[in-house]
Amino acid sequence: MSLFHRTGSVSRHGTAAGTGALAVLLLVGICGSPAYTRWAGTQTDPDSAAAFYVRLLAWPAWRLDADGQAGGLLAADLRAILLVVLAVALLYLLPAAQVARVPGSVSQFFSGWAAYVLAGGLAAVLAAPFGPDPSLLGAFQDATTGAGYGFLSGWIIGTASLGGRA
Predict the structure, then answer these.
(1) In 3-state terms, what secondary structure has residue 10?
(2) What is the rounded distance in angstroms from the CA atom of residue 155 to the CA atom of residue 17?
(3) If DSSP codes are grouped into helix, strand and coil, which group holds residue 4?
(4) Beta-bridge mates of residue 15
(5) What is the signed CA dihedral for 127, 129, 130, 132, rounded to 10 degrees?
(6) Phi/psi at 4 (nearest 5 deg)?
(7) For the chain, is the Cβ count within 10 Å smaller at the N or the C terminus?
(8) Which stretches of the chain score pLDDT less than 70?
């Protein structure tokens, strides 16, 4: 899609997929950072629903060093990398606004949310073979965790998708 209108001026608003992609980068970049994951793990009450959600947002944790994990830094950060790549790809591929019976905001919201749920589950499954204990059972368990993360945090991406045009 072009950022130019018919008059040749640059659009002030990005696409729904573009604003969703920016939200994905910010969510994974900030909430997956070592500082946030360390804070969420140590400074929150484990018996609180709010603290559960704060810790859940840290699921796509990425690191600045491999910490001795087999495969090095790429293997350690593969889940976060795949989450970003898959979420952005799915945001652009899901044609909700073009085929939805309810055009506009509702379809943009659910398209962004669904993209993040799918990306979370797929990223977890694809990264599982490179984890510390690769197994089919582990991949299935990781997929449910990733899809659950996407379900509970995907509304953020869906909301961000509302900021752009279809």
Answers:
(1) strand
(2) 14
(3) strand
(4) 165
(5) 110
(6) -100, 135
(7) N
(8) 1-14, 66-73, 75-76, 95-104, 163-166
pLDDT at 12: 44
For the chain, the structural domain boundaries read 16-161
**pLDDT confidence of residue 73:** 67
Measured between alpha carbons, how far apart are the two ends of the chain, in Å?
A: 10
The pLDDT score that the predictor gives to residue 6 is 44
Would you say the C-alpha torsion 73, 79, 80, 81 has a positive or negative sign? positive
- Amino acid at position 106, single letter: V
Q: Closest Cα partner for 80 from 16, 41, 131, 42?
A: 131
Task: Output DSSP code: residue 58.
Answer: T
Give the pTM. Answer: 0.83
* The predicted structure's pLDDT at residue 11: 44
158's enclosing H/E stretch is: helix 136-161
3 state DSSP class of 54: helix
Residue 44 amino acid letter: T
DSSP 19: H
**What percent of the residues of the chain are helix, what percent strand, and what percent coil, each to the nearest 5?**
65, 0, 30
Structure tokens, 12 = 């002030």
